[in-house]
Every structure is written in structure tokens, then in C-alpha cells.
Amino acid sequence: QPQTLNAAEGGASLGRGARVSRQYALRERAVALGWPVERVHVIDTDLGQSGATADREGFQRLVTEVGLGRAGIVLGLEVSRLARNSTDWHRLLELCALSDTLILDEDGVYDPAHFNDRLLLGLKGTMSEAELHVLRARLRGGILSKAKRGELRRSRRLTDVERIAHQEIPSGSGDGIVDADAGVDRHQSEL
């Protein structure tokens, strides 16, 4: 049998320790499915990295191994979260289909070479990307709402440019309440 790769993510609401233990439990699942333990490799270099991180060494290694036909199965807690966008996800699905690599997550085992499995996996990837879009939109909406009310607090030091446009709290802690209108009005009156 080809080498098995185990690249897992997911469980964002769980603590890092719980995610890691669930990830490594997938190794035992691969062994139970018949892969020798020495042929199961865990790729965990991307675990805990921000979704905004461009350098995804683990994902690139996974794509390379699958593309070279050295993987028999890709295991993940939520495999659709392995890729950060639909383009990368569908490219991985196509490589898996071409190299006869199966995909396994907590819901089942899929063969991307079969249309129905690839369709379902594609939908999972699209839903994952849509979920990220909705979460970002909600977070941005909350930030804008707080800013409009003048309640947005910043936990980092403001830059000089931000100081011009924002009114600072005199505590000296570096926290600031965003009130762009007052900051600009104050700056214009000083000119």
C-alpha cells in the first residue's frame, strides 16, 4: 500500500491539547484500516497557524506527497479545512483523484475519483470557505458598530498616524477609544 499521510485540523472550539490528541488519534484509525504504523505520517506543522498565514509548509508537503503518488489516504478531523480556499481545496481533490488517494474525516471515507464523493467534498470545501467569509463579516460588523458608538478599544499602542485620527484615553496604557470625527476635528483645530 502507498504511504499514508495524516494531516488534520479542525475543532477550533477545542483547546490546543484536545485538538492535538484528536489529531493523533487519527493515526490509530489509519492503522485500524490496515496501514502499517510506520507508514502513517502526521503532518502537523500548520496546526495552530492563523488562516491568514500564507506560508503553509504542512499543506504544501501534503499536496506534494499526494501529487507524487506517495499517499494512500489523507485523514483529517475536518478535511475541508486543510485548504484555506476553494481553489487549493479543489486542486487537492483533483490530485487525490488522479493518484487514487482516499480522504477520510469524522464523517466517512471518500474516493475523490468517484463523482458523488468529489461533489460532497467540494460542497464541504465551499461551505467551509463561506463559513470563514460569514465569520469575518460578522467580526468586521461588530468592530464597525463599536467604532460608530465610540466604544472600540485597542489593546496595542497607536501609531502617530492613528493618534491624529483617534482620541486617546489619558490612562497612558496605550488603549484608545476610536472616535475618528473627534480626532480629526481636534487635529484640524490645532492647524
Spell out the blueprint of helices and strands.
Layout: E1 4-7, H1 16-32, E2 40-43, H2 57-67, E3 73-75, H3 86-98, E4 102-105, E5 108-110, H4 115-149, H5 160-165, E6 167-168, E7 176-177, H6 180-190
Parallel strand pairs: 1-2, 1-3, 3-4
Antiparallel strand pairs: 4-5, 6-7
Helix pairs in contact: 3-4
Strand content: 5-15%
**CA(first)-CA(last) distance:** 75 Å
**Count, helices:** 6
Catalogue the unreliable spans. Answer: 1-14, 168-191
Rg, nearest Å: 23 Å
Q: How would you explain this protein's 3D organization?
A:
By secondary structure, this protein is an alpha/beta fold. It has helices at residues 16-32, 57-67, 86-98, 115-149, 160-165, 180-190, and strands at residues 4-7, 40-43, 73-75, 102-105, 108-110, 167-168, 176-177. It has a 5-stranded mixed beta sheet with strand order 2-1-3-4-5, with helices on both faces. Helix 1 links the parallel strand 1 (4-7) and strand 2. Helix 3 (86-98) packs antiparallel against helix 4. The longest helix has 35 residues, at 115-149. It is elongated.
Label this structure with key terms.
191 residues, disordered N terminus, two-stranded antiparallel ribbon, elongated, 6 helices, alpha/beta
